[in-house]
Amino acid sequence: MANNGWTPLTTQRNGLPDMAIMKEIESRPLAASAAVLVDYSSDSSESDSDPCCNGVHRTQSLTRASDPPPVSSTDSYRSLCTPQDGQDRDRDRPAAGIPLLPRSKASSAISTPPNGQWPIHIHVPLGQLPNHLTDLIDKLLEDVRQSISDLVSLVPWQSGSSNSSSQLHISLSRAGTWLPRAQLATCVAMIQADLAHQRPVQVQFGRVSHLINDTGSRRFVVLECTAGQVGLARWVRVVDQVLEKQLGRKPFYDKPRFHVSIGYVEVIAEDGSDPDGATRWDELMDRLTLKYGQQLTEFVLKLGRIEVRTGERVYNVDVAD
Protein backbone atom coordinates (compact mmCIF):
# COMPACT_ATOMS: atom_id res chain seq x y z
CA MET A 1 0.00 0.00 0.00
CA ALA A 2 1.40 3.41 -1.01
CA ASN A 3 2.42 5.56 1.92
CA ASN A 4 1.18 8.83 0.32
CA GLY A 5 3.84 10.87 2.10
CA TRP A 6 3.58 9.20 5.50
CA THR A 7 5.36 6.30 7.11
CA PRO A 8 3.71 3.81 9.51
CA LEU A 9 5.62 3.37 12.75
CA THR A 10 4.80 0.04 14.36
CA THR A 11 7.43 -0.46 17.07
CA GLN A 12 6.19 1.13 20.30
CA ARG A 13 7.17 1.06 23.95
CA ASN A 14 4.60 1.87 26.61
CA GLY A 15 2.35 3.46 23.99
CA LEU A 16 5.09 5.83 22.75
CA PRO A 17 7.67 5.47 19.96
CA ASP A 18 11.01 3.81 20.70
CA MET A 19 13.57 6.60 21.15
CA ALA A 20 15.98 4.78 18.84
CA ILE A 21 13.33 4.86 16.16
CA MET A 22 12.68 8.55 16.85
CA LYS A 23 16.38 9.28 16.24
CA GLU A 24 16.34 7.17 13.10
CA ILE A 25 13.33 9.11 11.85
CA GLU A 26 15.22 12.39 12.24
CA SER A 27 18.26 11.09 10.31
CA ARG A 28 16.77 8.95 7.52
CA PRO A 29 17.08 10.43 4.00
CA LEU A 30 14.03 11.83 2.29
CA ALA A 31 12.89 11.18 -1.27
CA ALA A 32 11.45 14.04 -3.25
CA SER A 33 8.54 11.86 -4.29
CA ALA A 34 7.57 11.41 -0.63
CA ALA A 35 6.77 15.07 0.00
CA VAL A 36 3.44 15.56 1.75
CA LEU A 37 2.83 19.12 0.72
CA VAL A 38 0.35 20.48 -1.79
CA ASP A 39 2.04 22.29 -4.69
CA TYR A 40 0.18 25.51 -5.39
CA SER A 41 0.48 27.13 -8.80
CA SER A 42 2.33 30.41 -9.19
CA ASP A 43 1.73 33.30 -11.56
CA SER A 44 4.92 33.80 -13.51
CA SER A 45 3.63 36.88 -15.30
CA GLU A 46 3.30 38.75 -12.00
CA SER A 47 6.33 37.28 -10.26
CA ASP A 48 8.66 38.97 -12.76
CA SER A 49 7.58 42.38 -11.53
CA ASP A 50 7.18 41.58 -7.83
CA PRO A 51 10.43 41.87 -5.81
CA CYS A 52 9.08 39.41 -3.23
CA CYS A 53 8.85 36.66 -5.81
CA ASN A 54 12.50 36.22 -6.78
CA GLY A 55 13.23 32.58 -6.05
CA VAL A 56 9.93 32.14 -4.23
CA HIS A 57 6.69 30.58 -5.49
CA ARG A 58 3.72 32.83 -4.85
CA THR A 59 0.41 31.06 -4.44
CA GLN A 60 -2.00 33.98 -4.26
CA SER A 61 -1.74 37.57 -5.45
CA LEU A 62 -3.57 40.84 -5.12
CA THR A 63 -4.96 42.79 -8.06
CA ARG A 64 -2.33 45.03 -9.53
CA ALA A 65 -4.56 48.13 -9.62
CA SER A 66 -4.48 48.71 -5.87
CA ASP A 67 -3.69 46.85 -2.69
CA PRO A 68 -6.26 46.52 0.10
CA PRO A 69 -5.59 48.31 3.36
CA PRO A 70 -3.84 46.37 6.12
CA VAL A 71 -6.06 44.40 8.46
CA SER A 72 -5.80 44.33 12.23
CA SER A 73 -3.59 41.72 13.86
CA THR A 74 -6.66 40.23 15.50
CA ASP A 75 -8.46 39.84 12.17
CA SER A 76 -5.31 38.48 10.55
CA TYR A 77 -5.02 35.79 13.18
CA ARG A 78 -8.73 35.02 13.13
CA SER A 79 -8.66 34.57 9.37
CA LEU A 80 -7.06 31.22 10.05
CA CYS A 81 -9.70 30.34 12.62
CA THR A 82 -13.04 31.56 11.24
CA PRO A 83 -15.95 29.12 11.68
CA GLN A 84 -17.01 27.55 8.41
CA ASP A 85 -20.56 27.60 7.06
CA GLY A 86 -22.76 25.10 8.83
CA GLN A 87 -20.77 25.19 12.06
CA ASP A 88 -22.14 26.49 15.34
CA ARG A 89 -21.68 30.27 15.55
CA ASP A 90 -23.54 30.79 18.83
CA ARG A 91 -21.00 32.51 21.06
CA ASP A 92 -23.32 32.91 24.05
CA ARG A 93 -24.08 29.28 24.77
CA PRO A 94 -21.69 27.91 27.42
CA ALA A 95 -19.64 24.84 26.61
CA ALA A 96 -20.92 21.64 28.16
CA GLY A 97 -18.74 19.96 30.76
CA ILE A 98 -15.69 22.22 30.50
CA PRO A 99 -15.92 25.86 31.71
CA LEU A 100 -14.89 28.74 29.52
CA LEU A 101 -11.76 30.68 30.39
CA PRO A 102 -12.55 34.14 31.82
CA ARG A 103 -11.38 36.97 29.62
CA SER A 104 -9.94 40.12 31.14
CA LYS A 105 -10.86 43.53 29.78
CA ALA A 106 -7.29 43.96 28.60
CA SER A 107 -7.27 40.76 26.58
CA SER A 108 -10.61 41.53 24.96
CA ALA A 109 -9.40 44.77 23.42
CA ILE A 110 -8.76 44.71 19.67
CA SER A 111 -5.30 46.01 18.83
CA THR A 112 -4.92 48.83 16.34
CA PRO A 113 -2.80 47.95 13.29
CA PRO A 114 0.47 49.89 13.07
CA ASN A 115 0.23 52.65 10.48
CA GLY A 116 1.48 51.54 7.07
CA GLN A 117 2.41 48.03 8.22
CA TRP A 118 1.27 44.61 7.08
CA PRO A 119 0.79 41.37 9.02
CA ILE A 120 3.20 38.54 8.30
CA HIS A 121 2.90 34.93 9.43
CA ILE A 122 5.31 32.10 8.68
CA HIS A 123 4.20 28.50 9.01
CA VAL A 124 4.57 24.96 7.68
CA PRO A 125 1.45 23.62 5.92
CA LEU A 126 0.76 19.92 6.41
CA GLY A 127 -0.81 19.62 2.98
CA GLN A 128 -2.75 16.52 1.98
CA LEU A 129 -3.02 14.03 4.84
CA PRO A 130 -3.63 10.28 4.54
CA ASN A 131 -7.25 9.22 4.94
CA HIS A 132 -6.51 7.13 8.02
CA LEU A 133 -5.12 10.19 9.79
CA THR A 134 -8.03 12.46 8.85
CA ASP A 135 -10.46 9.78 10.07
CA LEU A 136 -8.58 9.61 13.36
CA ILE A 137 -8.70 13.39 13.79
CA ASP A 138 -12.44 13.34 13.06
CA LYS A 139 -12.98 10.77 15.81
CA LEU A 140 -10.84 12.78 18.21
CA LEU A 141 -12.81 15.97 17.55
CA GLU A 142 -16.10 14.15 18.03
CA ASP A 143 -14.79 12.88 21.36
CA VAL A 144 -13.85 16.44 22.36
CA ARG A 145 -17.36 17.64 21.56
CA GLN A 146 -18.79 15.24 24.11
CA SER A 147 -17.30 17.59 26.73
CA ILE A 148 -17.02 20.84 24.74
CA SER A 149 -20.16 21.32 22.69
CA ASP A 150 -19.09 24.75 21.39
CA LEU A 151 -15.88 23.47 19.84
CA VAL A 152 -15.25 24.99 16.39
CA SER A 153 -13.39 22.68 14.03
CA LEU A 154 -10.34 23.98 12.15
CA VAL A 155 -9.91 20.95 9.88
CA PRO A 156 -10.57 21.93 6.24
CA TRP A 157 -11.95 18.58 5.08
CA GLN A 158 -14.94 18.93 7.39
CA SER A 159 -15.99 22.10 5.59
CA GLY A 160 -14.79 21.18 2.11
CA SER A 161 -12.54 24.25 2.05
CA SER A 162 -9.59 24.31 -0.35
CA ASN A 163 -8.41 27.78 0.67
CA SER A 164 -4.75 27.72 1.65
CA SER A 165 -5.48 29.85 4.73
CA SER A 166 -7.64 27.03 6.14
CA GLN A 167 -4.91 24.40 5.95
CA LEU A 168 -3.60 22.72 9.05
CA HIS A 169 -0.17 24.12 9.76
CA ILE A 170 2.68 24.41 12.26
CA SER A 171 3.55 28.02 13.11
CA LEU A 172 7.15 29.25 12.97
CA SER A 173 6.38 32.88 13.89
CA ARG A 174 4.03 34.64 16.26
CA ALA A 175 0.62 35.81 15.13
CA GLY A 176 0.36 39.58 15.08
CA THR A 177 3.82 40.26 13.64
CA TRP A 178 3.85 43.42 11.53
CA LEU A 179 6.28 44.83 8.96
CA PRO A 180 6.32 48.00 6.84
CA ARG A 181 5.44 47.10 3.28
CA ALA A 182 8.88 48.26 2.14
CA GLN A 183 10.44 45.48 4.26
CA LEU A 184 8.24 42.64 3.02
CA ALA A 185 10.35 41.88 -0.05
CA THR A 186 13.52 41.91 2.04
CA CYS A 187 11.97 39.62 4.65
CA VAL A 188 10.74 37.06 2.12
CA ALA A 189 14.04 37.10 0.21
CA MET A 190 16.15 36.61 3.35
CA ILE A 191 13.98 33.78 4.67
CA GLN A 192 14.07 32.05 1.29
CA ALA A 193 17.84 32.37 1.02
CA ASP A 194 18.50 31.19 4.58
CA LEU A 195 16.09 28.23 4.38
CA ALA A 196 17.33 27.07 0.98
CA HIS A 197 20.06 24.93 2.55
CA GLN A 198 17.93 23.44 5.32
CA ARG A 199 16.72 19.85 5.23
CA PRO A 200 13.11 18.66 5.19
CA VAL A 201 11.70 17.72 8.58
CA GLN A 202 9.82 14.58 9.57
CA VAL A 203 7.22 15.25 12.24
CA GLN A 204 5.01 13.05 14.33
CA PHE A 205 2.13 13.86 16.66
CA GLY A 206 1.52 11.91 19.85
CA ARG A 207 -0.02 14.24 22.42
CA VAL A 208 -3.35 16.09 22.62
CA SER A 209 -3.11 19.41 24.47
CA HIS A 210 -4.85 22.76 24.93
CA LEU A 211 -3.21 26.15 24.44
CA ILE A 212 -4.44 29.74 24.79
CA ASN A 213 -3.55 32.38 22.21
CA ASP A 214 -1.51 35.47 23.07
CA THR A 215 -4.59 37.70 23.40
CA GLY A 216 -6.33 35.26 25.76
CA SER A 217 -9.39 35.21 23.50
CA ARG A 218 -9.38 31.57 22.39
CA ARG A 219 -8.44 28.18 23.79
CA PHE A 220 -7.23 25.74 21.16
CA VAL A 221 -7.25 21.95 21.03
CA VAL A 222 -3.92 20.98 19.47
CA LEU A 223 -1.88 17.98 18.41
CA GLU A 224 1.64 18.45 19.76
CA CYS A 225 4.69 17.24 17.87
CA THR A 226 6.49 14.39 19.61
CA ALA A 227 9.10 14.00 16.86
CA GLY A 228 10.66 16.56 14.55
CA GLN A 229 11.05 19.32 17.13
CA VAL A 230 14.80 19.60 16.49
CA GLY A 231 14.30 20.21 12.78
CA LEU A 232 11.45 22.66 13.37
CA ALA A 233 13.58 24.52 15.92
CA ARG A 234 16.28 24.94 13.27
CA TRP A 235 13.72 26.52 10.96
CA VAL A 236 12.54 28.81 13.76
CA ARG A 237 16.11 29.99 14.36
CA VAL A 238 16.34 30.95 10.69
CA VAL A 239 13.04 32.86 10.88
CA ASP A 240 14.03 34.53 14.17
CA GLN A 241 17.35 35.57 12.69
CA VAL A 242 15.45 37.50 10.03
CA LEU A 243 12.51 38.84 12.02
CA GLU A 244 14.34 39.65 15.26
CA LYS A 245 17.99 40.27 14.38
CA GLN A 246 17.49 41.95 11.01
CA LEU A 247 14.04 43.55 11.31
CA GLY A 248 13.67 44.04 15.08
CA ARG A 249 10.49 42.02 15.53
CA LYS A 250 9.49 39.75 18.40
CA PRO A 251 11.03 36.25 18.17
CA PHE A 252 9.19 32.99 18.51
CA TYR A 253 8.63 31.49 21.97
CA ASP A 254 11.68 30.57 24.06
CA LYS A 255 10.37 27.06 24.63
CA PRO A 256 8.14 26.42 21.62
CA ARG A 257 5.51 23.70 21.73
CA PHE A 258 5.23 22.87 18.06
CA HIS A 259 1.68 21.88 17.29
CA VAL A 260 -1.24 21.83 14.89
CA SER A 261 -4.48 23.46 16.03
CA ILE A 262 -7.53 21.36 15.14
CA GLY A 263 -10.28 23.21 17.03
CA TYR A 264 -10.99 26.07 19.41
CA VAL A 265 -13.54 27.63 21.73
CA GLU A 266 -14.12 31.33 22.22
CA VAL A 267 -13.36 32.88 25.59
CA ILE A 268 -16.59 34.80 26.20
CA ALA A 269 -16.71 35.38 29.98
CA GLU A 270 -15.88 38.98 30.85
CA ASP A 271 -15.20 38.50 34.55
CA GLY A 272 -15.22 35.94 37.33
CA SER A 273 -12.75 33.19 38.14
CA ASP A 274 -12.38 29.56 37.25
CA PRO A 275 -9.76 28.01 39.54
CA ASP A 276 -10.27 24.41 38.41
CA GLY A 277 -10.89 25.12 34.71
CA ALA A 278 -7.32 24.51 33.55
CA THR A 279 -7.13 21.33 35.62
CA ARG A 280 -10.29 19.98 34.05
CA TRP A 281 -9.00 20.80 30.58
CA ASP A 282 -5.73 19.04 31.45
CA GLU A 283 -7.63 15.96 32.54
CA LEU A 284 -9.62 15.89 29.30
CA MET A 285 -6.49 16.26 27.16
CA ASP A 286 -4.71 13.53 29.14
CA ARG A 287 -7.62 11.19 28.54
CA LEU A 288 -7.58 11.96 24.82
CA THR A 289 -3.83 11.42 24.67
CA LEU A 290 -4.21 7.99 26.27
CA LYS A 291 -6.94 7.11 23.80
CA TYR A 292 -5.46 8.53 20.58
CA GLY A 293 -1.77 9.21 21.23
CA GLN A 294 -0.39 5.85 20.14
CA GLN A 295 -2.51 5.83 16.98
CA LEU A 296 -1.28 9.32 16.08
CA THR A 297 2.34 8.22 16.35
CA GLU A 298 1.80 5.73 13.53
CA PHE A 299 1.98 8.61 11.04
CA VAL A 300 5.25 10.35 10.18
CA LEU A 301 4.78 13.40 7.94
CA LYS A 302 7.64 14.62 5.78
CA LEU A 303 7.55 18.40 5.43
CA GLY A 304 9.68 20.48 3.12
CA ARG A 305 7.80 23.69 2.40
CA ILE A 306 7.34 26.87 4.42
CA GLU A 307 4.66 29.45 3.66
CA VAL A 308 5.22 33.17 4.20
CA ARG A 309 1.85 34.93 4.35
CA THR A 310 1.90 38.72 3.98
CA GLY A 311 -1.53 40.27 3.92
CA GLU A 312 -3.37 38.37 1.20
CA ARG A 313 -0.24 37.11 -0.54
CA VAL A 314 1.35 33.74 0.11
CA TYR A 315 4.91 32.80 -0.86
CA ASN A 316 6.12 29.19 -0.86
CA VAL A 317 9.70 28.54 0.24
CA ASP A 318 10.95 25.03 -0.55
CA VAL A 319 13.86 23.75 1.50
CA ALA A 320 16.66 21.69 -0.06
CA ASP A 321 15.83 18.03 -0.58
Can you describe this structure?
There is one protein chain. The protein has a domain at 116-318: Cyclic phosphodiesterase (Cyclic Phosphodiesterase, Chain: A, Alpha-Beta Complex). The longest helix has 20 residues, at 277-296. The protein is built from 8 helices and 14 strands. With 321 residues, it is an alpha+beta fold. α6 (181-195) runs antiparallel to α7 (229-246). A hairpin with a 5-residue loop joins β9 (201-212) and β10 (218-227). The chain has a 6-stranded antiparallel sheet with strand order 1-12-9-10-11-6. Strands 4, 5, 7, 8, 13 and 14 form a 6-stranded antiparallel sheet that branches. A two-stranded antiparallel ribbon has the order 2-3.
